[in-house]
């Protein structure tokens, strides 16, 4: 019986090659898109699941309770020792501190590398295996390091580098004692060189200390708990630590345990917003759904052509269930071929997909048992859903009407359903187009909008550690003499897109207690405000360079103090980090963080001890020459350090890198949705034209022209698109309004977005319809009238 079903199914598919090709092509795109999205979601769901006892591993975080709750994925440097020695909850506790772009010397070659300093138990908590697991390797001793195979090959040109050495920051020789297997992409760890924690004291005294005065984002603390621990009880016990070790602090700490499985998805602590995965999953369903709708529409339309075949089979004793399963087999054959082609397309697209999302998916991913399960379930569901309704329609055809040729399309069924499905297709397409327009507008607004400071043609360079004030002043003077260099400022960080962030408590107007909010410190010299073109609202900038006696603040700072006007804060004292200063000016708010976050209260203060970067504004038309001369002077000043720079506008744009990736996918999938929808419309219009070819001939004989015939065939689809526009508009508005809630500063959803989406869908559909309609209308009417 199955063999007979397959044979008949194959013959039927061969008889209708065009419609079969349309169905296969549409389903192939749907399957391929769904598979890529499945691999993307699976990758994110697999983060750090490869560690043994991963359910017992936690990161220790801090909630800072001031006037609001600030979530930070770190704890004070002294927390780990206390948690290890004063409590019995943990089996292992370890700190890790990431330091970016440190200098290492290998032979005569210098490299800038991100390096993590780890305590010994870190690699006992986590399973990052060594290449040679038999070696008893430890980095408990100072000046020892572990390195990944990939990084070893990159730096040394070989993988076996045990015993090799490199010089850290020009003064410490470090020996490599072990080589780690390459780290998977699906892990929180993003460095490939690990050095003993004892060496951190030469890089960061605060991070390597056992202090409790503050936190820093580069430090993280992990623990593996003993079995059967109560997390709530542990967090309750930790409430006593701030009272004991931070009795005078006004920013109250509450320490929390975050499960390892939650790190990648907790947006409060810098993780991925899980809504993105939900959105991508929905898009995958949309695309495969649109392709299935095409299949259903074309199949139900073709039921009329197969009516005599069905009538004969029923008269000869064919049962409804046999006819139903016959059609389901045909659907399965098409779906299977499309799924296999979709898998091939997925394999070909993987390199581009990996490059776009910085993944490591390989062809082997398509042979994973989980992928095979997904493939089987998707194929089964699509085959059943796409084939069951057309199968039921065909099975219920009345044989008498079919054999007498009196069966019309209403008798064959499916007309109303087709219209509903076509409206659904168009609605999805319109929603995706609106989403693309809104996302594109918001990202453009964030990157190119008014940030409140100058970001064009500004070069940012890191200041080497322990640089003397006199050296900085001399360097600044030499750089200012370069043709093409317009302005220079020494600073802690740039106004926005900064890699250095520093929040601090402070006392205002000689109060003994700190204010209930932190201020973001932006240390900068006398030229900081001028170089970044930050407008002053009132007061003045600094009169003296690098003397910590004056400070200027932003409007947000004044707002947080509930001052009656910006002038009220002028002349008031502000004690910050042990320095008592006077507020001499208020500058206009600028976006120091992404548009998803509120502008911070900011204080700019001149203090040479806090400078970490040099900002140089150059004439962009003469940038190449200027940068060459800057490199020469820099190398003469810091001959042990690598000259490296970044343009500030690039740094700002990097903040929205993930959004730009999602925008690209939004555009891609919107285009695919429209393409698949138009493919289905093409198949339907081809069917309707063949059905009404004689009518077209009669209309031409009676005087109708091509324009009238095109309008005749287009009007029904135009009505369906307008209905889809009415349905999709409130849905699209609600979805994008919810998405924009993630941005504190956001663009508006314009009414014309919906008009553009509807008109674009309308134009593409009319173009699709026009091709076959005009072709039929230009056919000789004599030939049309001879056609039955």
How are the SSEs ordered, and which strands pair?
Blueprint lengths: L1 H14 L1 H29 L11 E9 L3 E4 L6 H8 L3 E17 L2 E10 L3 H4 L18 E5 H8 L8 E4 L3 E9 L12 E4 L8 H4 L10 E7 L5 H8 L1 H6 L6 E8 H4 L11 H28 L4 H9 L4 H38 L11 H27 L3 H6 L4 H4 L2 H34 L9 E5 L6 H12 L4 E7 L11 E2 L1 E3 L10 E3 L6 H4 L4 E4 L10 E5 H6 L12 E4 L2 E9 L14 E3 L8 E6 L4 H15 L8 E2 H7 L2 H35 L1 H9 L4 H35 L10 H27 L3 H5 L3
Parallel strand pairs: 4-8, 5-7, 15-20, 17-19
Antiparallel strand pairs: 1-2, 1-9, 1-10, 3-4, 3-6, 3-9, 5-8, 6-7, 11-21, 11-22, 12-21, 13-15, 14-18, 16-19, 17-20, 18-19
How would you briefly describe this protein structure?
The protein is an alpha+beta fold and 788 residues long.
Provide structural commentary:
This protein is an alpha+beta fold. It folds into four domains: 1-47 and 270-413, no CATH class; 54-263, no CATH class; 433-450 and 655-788, no CATH class; 465-640, no CATH class. 49% of the residues lie in helices and 16% in strands. It contains 26 helices and 22 strands. The strands form three sheets. Strands 13, 14, 15, 16, 17, 18, 19 and 20 form an eight-stranded mixed beta sheet that branches. The chain has a six-stranded mixed β-barrel with strand order 3-4-8-5-7-6. The protein has a four-stranded antiparallel beta sheet with strand order 12-21-11-22. Strand 3 (90-106) and strand 4 form a beta hairpin. The protein is globular, with a radius of gyration of 34 Å. It starts with a helix and ends with a helix. The mean pLDDT is 83.
């Amino acid at each position: 019986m199955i063999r007979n079903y397959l044979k008949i199914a194959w013959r039927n598919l061969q008889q209708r090659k065009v419609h079969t090709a349309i169905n296969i092509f549409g389903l192939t795109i749907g399957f391929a898109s769904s598979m890529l999205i499945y691999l993307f979601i699976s990758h994110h769901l697999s983060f750090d699941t490869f560690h043994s006892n991963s359910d017992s591993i936690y990161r220790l975080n801090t909630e800072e309770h001031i006037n609001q709750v600030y979530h930070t994925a770190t704890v004070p440097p002294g927390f780990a020792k206390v948690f290890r020695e004063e409590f019995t909850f943990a089996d292992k506790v370890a700190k890790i501190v990431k330091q970016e772009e440190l200098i290492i010397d290998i032979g005569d070659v210098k490299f800038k590398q991100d390096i993590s300093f780890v305590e010994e138990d870190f690699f006992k908590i986590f399973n990052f295996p060594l290449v040679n697991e038999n070696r008893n390797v430890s980095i408990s001793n100072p000046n020892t390091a572990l390195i990944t195979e990939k990084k070893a090959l990159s730096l040394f040109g070989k993988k076996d580098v045990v015993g090799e050495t490199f010089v850290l920051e020009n003064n410490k020789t470090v020996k490599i004692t072990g080589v780690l297997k390459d780290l998977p992409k699906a892990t929180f760890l993003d460095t490939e060189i690990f050095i003993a924690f004892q060496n951190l004291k030469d890089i960061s005294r605060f991070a390597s200390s056992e202090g409790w005065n503050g936190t820093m984002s580069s430090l993280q603390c992990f623990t593996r708990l003993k079995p059967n621990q109560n997390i709530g009880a542990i967090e309750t016990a930790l409430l006593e630590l701030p009272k004991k070790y931070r009795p005078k602090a006004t920013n109250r700490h509450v320490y929390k345990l975050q499960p390892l499985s939650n790190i990648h998805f907790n947006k409060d602590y810098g993780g991925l917003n899980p809504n993105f995965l939900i959105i991508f999953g929905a898009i995958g369903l949309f695309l495969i759904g649109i392709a299935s709708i095409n299949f259903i529409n074309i199949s139900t339309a073709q039921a009329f052509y197969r009516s005599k075949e069905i009538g004969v089979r029923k008269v000869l004793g064919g049962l409804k269930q046999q006819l139903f399963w016959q059609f389901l087999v045909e659907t399965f054959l098409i779906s299977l071929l499309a799924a296999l082609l979709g898998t091939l397309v997925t394999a070909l697209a993987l390199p581009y997909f990996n490059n776009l999302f910085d993944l490591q998916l390989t062809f082997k991913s398509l042979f994973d048992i989980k992928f095979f399960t997904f493939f089987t379930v998707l194929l089964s569901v699509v085959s059943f859903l796409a084939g069951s309704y057309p199968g039921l329609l065909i099975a219920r055809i009345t044989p008498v009407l079919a054999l007498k040729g009196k069966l019309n399309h209403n008798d064959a069924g499916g007309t109303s359903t087709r219209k509903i499905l076509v409206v659904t297709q168009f609605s999805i397409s319109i929603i995706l187009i609106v989403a693309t327009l809104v996302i594109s507008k918001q990202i453009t607004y964030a990157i190119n909008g008014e940030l409140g400071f100058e970001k064009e043609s500004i070069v940012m360079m890191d200041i080497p550690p322990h640089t003397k004030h006199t050296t900085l002043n001399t360097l600044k003077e030499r750089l200012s003499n370069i043709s093409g260099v317009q302005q220079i400022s020494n600073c802690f960080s740039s106004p926005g897109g900064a890699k250095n962030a520093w929040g601090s408590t402070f006392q205002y107007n000689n109060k003994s207690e700190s204010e209930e909010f932190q201020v973001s410190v932006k240390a900068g010299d006398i030229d900081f405000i001028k170089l970044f073109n930050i407008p002053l609202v009132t007061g003045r900038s600094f009169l003296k360079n690098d003397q910590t006696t004056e400070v200027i603040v932003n409007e947000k700072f004044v707002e947080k103090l509930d001052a009656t006007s910006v002038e009220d804060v002028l002349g008031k004292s502000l004690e910050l980090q042990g320095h008592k200063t006077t507020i001499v000016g208020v500058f206009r708010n600028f976006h120091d963080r992404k548009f998803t976050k509120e502008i911070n209260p900011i204080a700019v203060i001149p203090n040479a001890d806090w400078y970490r970067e040099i900002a140089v504004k150059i004439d962009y038309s003469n940038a190449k020459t200027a940068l060459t001369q800057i490199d020469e002077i820099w190398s003469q000043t810091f001959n042990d350090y690598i000259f490296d720079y970044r343009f500030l506008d690039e740094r700002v744009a990097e903040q929205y890198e993930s959004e730009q990736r999602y925008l690209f996918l939004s555009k891609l999938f919107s285009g695919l949705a429209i393409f698949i929808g138009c493919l289905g419309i093409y198949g339907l219009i081809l069917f309707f034209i063949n059905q009404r070819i004689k009518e077209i001939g009669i209309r031409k004989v009676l005087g109708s022209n091509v324009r009238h015939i095109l309008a005749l065939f287009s009007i029904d689809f135009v009505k369906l698109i307008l209905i889809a526009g009415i349905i999709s508009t409130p849905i699209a508005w609600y979805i994008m309004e919810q998405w924009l809630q993630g941005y504190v500063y956001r663009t508006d959803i314009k009414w014309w977005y919906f008009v553009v989406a509807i008109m674009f869908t309308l134009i593409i559909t009319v173009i699709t319809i026009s091709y076959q309609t005009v072709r039929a209308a230009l056919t000789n009417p004599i030939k049309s009238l001879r056609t039955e």
